[in-house]
Amino acid sequence: MSRVQAIELVYLFCAVCFIVALKGLSSPRSARLGNIIGAVGMTVAVGATFATPGLHRIGLIVVALVIGTAVGVPAARAVKMTAVPQMVAAFNGVGGGAAALVSLAEFDRGHASFGTAAAVLFSTLVGAVSFTGSAITFAKLQELMTGRPIVLPRQREINAALAVTALALVVWGLSDRSVTAAVLLALVAGVLGVLFVLPVGGADVPVVISLLNSFTGLAVAATGAALRTTLLIVAGTLVGASGTLLTRMMSQAMGRPLSSTLFGALTATASAAAAGPDDGADRSVRTGTVDDVAVLLAYAHRVVVVPGYGLAVAQAQHTIRELADLLESRGVEVVYGIHPVAGRMPGHMNVLLAEANVPYEQLREMDDVNPQFPLTDVVLVVGANDVVNPAARDSPGSPIYGMPILNVDEAKAVVFLKRSMRPGFAGIDNALLYDPKTTMLFGDAKDTLTSLVSAVKTA
Amino acid sequence: MTETTLGLFTIFVLSVFVGFEVISKVSSVLHTPLMSGANAIHGVILIGSIVILGTGHGAVQGVLGFVAVVLATVNAVGGFVVTDRMLEMFKGRARK
């Protein structure tokens, strides 16, 4: 076996590591291990690359590796958890930049076949878009610039002109193998990347980061095709494909199709684009899946269950207890927050839960539980609505203004189990249902709780 | 189309399907860590950067290669470290 073949075999091992890593990252149990497996694959790949025949400038390579590590590790360690998305964006951008640079350098060597030239130009284009696009997402999230959508006058025409220019440069590069064309393409693509991200609003930026992440993956794959390195093709394509899927999932989790996230500000009328965050478009409801909520609950420290009339209607008191016991056995602290008028009569909930033998210590009166909501990770509202409606506290015009409520909106996350979006007994809309930290699970409380129990078991 | 090109294309198409399959069902709390982990994985452009720097000739390729190695290292190393930090919060919380 030649040395090149041996390296190829090691690369195959690394490719498997990356697949296992992505698989592991898809489940909370194995996520950390998956990440470590990915890191191992990366380390092995770099080690094997040093065995490449005819490799010189070893000293320079080591210096560059040291500099990169000295920048990357402290940055990743020091970043606050709230600032993680922009950190990911920054790392993604430099990756895209690296892919574009490697492609340009490969082109500079000359003798590129048609296929290689196509791969190089693709990688340059996409890598440069990812680089500058990520820079803008970073600036938006880091509040170096406004998070609001920015639309230039005549932006659609500008975009079209740039796209045509890029296409012309690609044709030039393909026909002449011109390095100048590739360099110009990188510059035009850089401007396109900026214009692509500017119209995206702050809240949607994470979706764009995910999309740019898959772009970088594709750029890496194209670079792999140019360099004829299988590992780059496999790893880049993996990220490109899974990243595209993930982008769609993230977009769906926010309750909007991807196209409106990306181009909403461009296609919308000027007034809608200029409107503030309080307009109707932002009153979207986030519908979760049972699995999402199960993971949210299973990895919480503290959960408060707020039962209401819906629990009684669905006769779900035994199922909610089963869920609570299951969470307790996983180390989650579970209590019930009982509003005095929850249900249709005072004490309705106490009776109902007593029937299911819920331990008395877990039942908390409103005045006892209210101060604890800021320390609560998840509030599970089962068939209640008016008793958690912040309008009773905040909107003097509301018919229920002045009624004491459970301040569930102070918790980190709220999950509503409801049959529909219909308002509660009092007939008043509840703004909390539209809050970004609220997740809705529609359906009969008992059915939903039963599915939650089985989902928590596997979470 | 040469045989090598065909082989590389085959690998590309199969990888697309593996990429889709491998993350078909992901809870929304894991979206960000998964994105970050995938982000670290495309840092594998590092090996391409090393090859360019190590086998290239002349100043232009040297400079491009050097900058690429630095950037790719930041991507890969930083990516894995930041993902690990995110995932720390899943550790121990379930089994207290």
Helix/strand layout:
The complex is a heterodimer of chains A (459) and B (96).
Chain A: H1 3-25, H2 31-49, H3 58-78, H4 84-108, H5 114-141, H6 155-176, H7 179-197, H8 205-227, H9 230-253, H10 258-267, H11 270-274, H12 290-298, E1 302-307, H13 309-314, H14 317-329, E2 333-338, H15 348-355, E3 363-365, H16 366-369, E4 378-382, H17 391-394, E5 413-418, E6 438-442, H18 445-458
Parallel strand pairs in A: 1-2, 1-4, 2-3, 4-5, 5-6
Chain B: H1 3-22, H2 31-41, H3 45-55, H4 58-87
Helix pairs in contact in B: 2-4, 3-4
Question: What attributes does this structure have?
Answer:
heterodimer; A: 459 residues; alpha/beta; Rossmann fold; 2 domains; 6-stranded parallel β-sheet; 60% helix; B: 96 residues; mainly alpha; flat; disordered C terminus
Could you please describe the fold and organization of this structure?
The complex is a heterodimer of chains A (459) and B (96). Chain A has 459 residues and is an alpha/beta fold. Chain A has helices at residues 3-25, 31-49, 58-78, 84-108, 114-141, 155-176, 179-197, 205-227, 230-253, 258-267, 270-274, 290-298, 309-314, 317-329, 348-355, 366-369, 391-394, 445-458, and strands at residues 302-307, 333-338, 363-365, 378-382, 413-418, 438-442. Chain A folds into 2 domains: 79-274, no CATH class; 290-458, Rossmann fold (3-Layer(aba) Sandwich). Chain A has a 6-stranded parallel β-sheet. In chain A, helix 15 links the parallel strand 2 and strand 3. In chain A, helix 4 (84-108) runs antiparallel to helix 5, helix 4 packs parallel to helix 8 (205-227) and helix 12 (290-298) crosses helix 18. Chain B is mostly helical and 96 residues long. Chain B has a domain at 25-90. Chain B has helices at residues 3-22, 31-41, 45-55, 58-87. The longest helix of chain B is centred in the C-terminal third of the chain and has 30 residues, at 58-87. Chains A and B meet through helix 1, helix 2, helix 3, helix 4 and helix 8 of A and helix 1, helix 2, helix 3 and helix 4 of B.
